[in-house]
Design a protein that fits this description.
By secondary structure, this protein is mainly alpha-helical. It has one domain. It is built from 7 helices and 3 strands. Strands 1-2-3 form a 3-stranded antiparallel beta sheet. Helix 1 crosses helix 4, helix 3 crosses helix 4 and helix 5 crosses helix 7. The radius of gyration is 19 Å and the shape is elongated. About 5% of the residues have low confidence.
Length: about 160
């Protein structure tokens, strides 16, 4: 169990690796970033973070983080992480997005063609943008994703005809 102390009116904890004193927010960020690093693709991180958001209230929830750091702090780091990962995805070149999404689809363990057809029909990727994303960001995200999905469907069709 993590033991928190108050030093100069700031909640701190000792870093288990270095022994350095960290503010509560720094420790939360450190723990959470280590968790996100376990997801090998940016698109996978985006999907995971969006899954932690209640689609009715917009509130982020993660039981483990909330138990260790409190619901408010956990929700804040999840929201900020979601916004950061989304921004990073938007800043990828189209080729990088294509490669990242390709790796994500390969890691799903589902029939790729079926997933691509479902995504073409239901567009579940549209709920992955964070609430703070503006209209232009959402449009760029959806346009890039639809282009990439078309490329992936064409690649899939080409591989079947060979």
């Amino acid at each position: 169990m993590t033991e928190w102390r108050v030093v100069d009116k700031i909640m701190v904890v000792s870093d288990p690796n270095t022994g350095a004193m960290l503010r509560r927010e720094e420790r939360l960020e450190q723990v959470w970033n280590r968790t996100l690093e376990q997801i090998p693709t940016h698109f996978g991180r985006l999907a995971y973070l969006a899954s932690l958001r209640d689609h009715n209230s917009g509130r982020y929830r993660h039981h483990g983080l909330a138990q260790s750091f409190g619901e408010e702090e956990a929700a804040k780091i999840l929201r900020l992480s979601h916004e950061t990962v989304f921004s990073e995805w938007l800043n990828f070149r189209l080729q990088e997005q294509h490669e990242d999404l390709d790796r994500y689809l390969n890691s799903m363990g589902q029939d790729r063609r079926s997933v691509l057809e479902t995504w073409g029909t239901l567009a579940p990727y549209r709920v992955l943008a964070p609430a703070a994303a503006g209209g232009a960001e959402r449009l760029l995200y959806e346009t890039d994703l639809e282009i990439i999905l078309e490329l992936l469907r064409a690649e899939s069709a080409d591989s079947r005809s060979v």
